[in-house]
Every structure is written in C-alpha cells, then in structure tokens.
Amino acid sequence: MKSQHTPTPSEIMRKQPLQERAQRTIEAIFQATAQIVELEGEQGLTTNKVAKKAGFSIGTLYQYFPTKEAIVLAMINRERRRVMDQLQVTLTLAVHEQREPQQVVREMIHTLVESFGSGPKLRRAMIRMAWRMDHHEVITQALREGAERNAIALGQLTGGSLRTPTPVMMFVVTRAVIGAIRSASLEDSPLLGTPAFEDELVRMVWGLLKA
Q1: CA distances from 172 to 47, 132, 148, 168, 177 (A)
Q2: Which CATH number is 9-64's, of 3.60.15.10, 3.40.440.10, 1.10.10.60, 2.60.40.2470?
Q3: Which CATH number among 2.20.130, 3.40.109, 1.10.357, 3.30.390 corresponds to the domain 72-210?
Q4: Is the pLDDT reported for residue 12 higher than 70?
Q5: What are the C-alpha distances in Å from 211 to residues 33, 152, 153, 203?
Q6: pLDDT, tens digit, for every residue of 118-168?
C-alpha cells in the first residue's frame, strides 16, 4: 500500500474535528487503527475493522476518512507536527539556558529515533507501515524546512563555531539521519532504541556540524 502522489487535505480528512466530541472520535479511530496493525499487521487493516473496534458505524468513520490509507496519513501528519514542535521547543530552551550543544544534538536525535523508529507514540508495526507509505519524504521535507533555523539556534550555543548551514549540508544531514532510522525500522532491527545506534547518529551529525 503506497501512495503515488502527495495527497491533498481532502484526500486525508474529509472534515476537520473542531468540536471536542469529534476530536474524541478521531482519537478513537487512530487508536483502533494502531491496535489492528499491531495485532494483525498491515494486511489486516480495513475501515470496517477500524470502525468496529473504535465503536462507531462505518458511516461515522467515512465522515472523516475516505480510506484506510487516509487514516494512516493523518496519523503520520499529526506525529510529524508533534515532533517538529518538540524539536523547536528543545532548541528554544537550549538557547535560553545556553546548554551544551552536543547534548542538545543528542536529545534531538533521541526524539527522532523514538518517534519515527522505536515508538512509543506509534507501535513499531504502525511505524513500518507509515514508512512504506512514503513517510520518508514527508519527514525529510519537514526536517529540511526547519534545518536552517535549527542550525542557527545551535550556532548560538557555540558562539558561531559551527559551520554555516548550506542546502547541501542540510540535505546530507536530514537524509542520513532519517534514512538510517527508516532502514532500521523497516528491517525491524534490534539496534533501534539502543544507545549505540543513537551514539553513531550523534557522532555523524556532530562531525558534519563541526567539520
């Protein structure tokens, strides 16, 4: 199950959950989807199963999502926004507190690995399904959009001793980090969630920033 183009908002969600009751409905649909994928795998996911497990009619589900792919894409987008916001908060606080920059890089790497590789927000089976649905480009694009801002913030922690970010450097950093996480996730590697895996990513990013 792989998308062939960048979906429009209407292809992901038919309407936005503005009221609290609607938001609870969306959350129940997301939880049901993750549980089915975890227990039965990607092949076991259907809109009928999601609706039944969430406790809604199929008509209620279709009010929000036209397909099962749309549910997963909406989950991906929500997680992406959450992680990007979390990274921005980490950097803002780090600059305010003048924290040690390499430790800040480590925290950022940990956030990315935990969110897009080992969990806990989405189970590993759910994450692998997301990666197969062009999750790679969604996440790398989001990282590129904030890469220059993040590099400037890190530079403020080191008095300008880090390299000035360039499009080439940002491309290499984002693709290398997310590519490694994606490969480890799709391979269900036991390295995910280990300190050694994160250590190597930190060394790589820090080496590029300090070169």
Answers
A1: 38, 21, 13, 6, 8
A2: 1.10.10.60
A3: 1.10.357
A4: no
A5: 44, 16, 17, 12
A6: 876 567 888 888 888 766 666 667 666 777 777 777 777 776 677 776 778
